[in-house]
Amino acid sequence: MKTIGVDVGGTFTDLVYCDLSTGAVEIHKVSTTPDDPSRGVLTGITELCDIVGVTPAEIDTVFHGTTIATNAVLEHKGATTGMITNEGFRDIVHIGRHQRVLHYSIRQELPWQDRPLVKRRHRKTVAGRLVPPTGAELEPLDEAGVRDAALELKAAGVEAVAVCFLFSYLNPAHEKRAAEIVADVMPDAFVTTSSFVSPQFREFERFTTAGLAAFVGPKVRRYIAHLEEALAYVGVRGELRIMASSGGVATAAMVAEKPTLTLLSGLAAGVLGGAFVGAIADRRKLITFDIGGTSADIGIIVDGRFAETDSRSTSIAGFPLLAPMIDIHTIGAGGGSIAHLDRGGAFRVGPRSAGAVPGPAAYGRGGEEPTVTDANLVLGRLDEDDFLGGGMALDGSAARRVVGRLAETLGLSLEETAEGILTVINNNMANAIRSRTVQKGIDPRDFALVAFGGAGPLHGAEVAAILGIREVLVPPFPGITSAMGLLTTDLKYDAVRTQFQVSGGIDLARLNADLAEMEAGLDERLAADHVPAEKRGFQRTGDLRYVGQGYELKVPIPAGPLDEAALDTVWEAFHAAHAAEYGHAFRQSPIEIVNVRVSGIGVMPKLKPLTAPEGGSLEAATIRTGPCVFRVDGVLERFETTFYRRTLLPVGEAFAGPAIVLQRDSTTVVPPRSIARVDAAGNILITLEASR
């Protein structure tokens, strides 16, 4: 089975080819084409097929991590969106909840108010009401009112409509009928419902999630359709699978229906790639550290399991989101991050990025602002003539010119300014890791840092040193680890039902019926995607809380029909999860099941563990020596540094820093006072001195 994984980043599009029957792997990178990302995807696929000597028709599956939905939200460049909701509830998506993002700020930005997904004039209300606890109809839906609202939205040029009614998670009938009417009136519009996107309680978050789906829906649907057509045009007849934020992949048809599945698509693939690398290296506690051209993405993995977001913390661009997602923290820090003085005269690096066009000044594409890449080149940590394996030459004079201009403004030397850029960006990234570890009661010193992405290996060791982490893993192909992560997962769909049942009075018949119905629906969906019965499986979880609490914790639910004994294991799992999260448990307090969830898994062939290239000797791997600048004990020093060719490094033989390891898809920095070696799987293991 021949597969290609494609991950579109802000600067480069990364690709990996793998023949899953033989284990053969080949990598490739091309420049991202921001105006139409599919152009870069197709260019990369056709070039990669030529490199490995196969035709596009021989590719069985293309796995794709996309940033289309993410960028549409981050840049607020989605469709003109409308909403139809209950009378009197037009402003739910504006008011939000009483919690403030910043408790004591009276001038804070609230995204849903400052840049609403649905403008107020495009929010229409109609009569009709369903009521809890069963979703019974209190007032019939005003179908004529829905038609009138749709006509008004059509006349206003609305491209997408979210239908959001109260208590639709209990009974979706009104939403379904309203959506049918809207689709009839507006056949070219993207129409979705809150009960389809996220059938669970909390109307503000559910309505906002549906609004997000509508906001990005047309753009995602057009992109997927265009990509499928383009793949067919170049001869790819295999299936297209899209990375979902939950850590699974979905079919193109499912993503077109539920575009919110892809809001953290490429980032999720990076965490999976990091987990794959850690498992091969037999490391059970990992911090994944993915740095590309525009962002740094951080995930936590313990015993092969990645952390998932909950209803308290799931958001994108500040908008709350009710969707299963890997817990990934992203900051604007990458190779293209621009160093500048803010309005108050403070020295900043990022979040603004030079991106793919014009890119850093060193790329020679017209960039005139100093970036992190330019700083690395000024300090000697990048090779002008051996970037991307020699596939791209860097312009050192341009890098020195733009960093030099900033140095004059700051009154510092060229090298002090360049090193200052790296110090700021490295501390920004270290603080981001602290927010996911130290601030959650996790000691990062117990973890290994997996550094990947085009710029991760450049910064990984120094960021680890700031945090007291002793070990850094650099994967065999760090620049395309996210693309490789696409080849390590399964087809995955999720279902959820709200329960509101309390321990001591559980209606087992209802609970078992809901779980069985969700599994049956997911099984039908997997069968429609041609997954054999023996390759289908299910994972159950529940969102639980003590009665009176406002938020839930996710715990596993056993397979099969549940009885009182099975429920006892669920209660015990919740007590343990609460103690781990908050430091205590209330074992005498009643527990409430808020939601039950089922994930349907379609097992797919996966990437096999890699083996290290045969290599050679340190002498054979040595390219040259040259000066590089590092800060040691607070002093900026110039070190004579050895540059190595990674493919020629011997397995198991240690070499001391400072050293620079060059390869086609990334550059690894081994700083002073550290030791590196290549393990049997081809990872570079960098061990830092405890005193750093």
TrEMBL record:
GO cellular component labels: cytosol
Record keywords: Hydrolase
GO molecular function: 5-oxoprolinase (ATP-hydrolyzing) activity; N-methylhydantoinase (ATP-hydrolyzing) activity
Positions of the Hydantoinase/oxoprolinase N-terminal domain: 4-184
BP GO terms, sorted: glutathione metabolic process
Protein name: N-methylhydantoinase A
Originating species: Prosthecomicrobium pneumaticum
EC category name: hydrolase
PANTHER family according to UniProt: 5-OXOPROLINASE RELATED, HYPOTHETICAL 5-OXOPROLINASE (EUROFUNG)-RELATED
InterPro entries, per database record: ATPase_NBD, Hydant_A_N, Hydantoinase_A, Oxoprolinase-like
Occurrences of domain Hydantoinase A/oxoprolinase (ranges): 206-493
Entry's EC annotation: 3.5.2.14
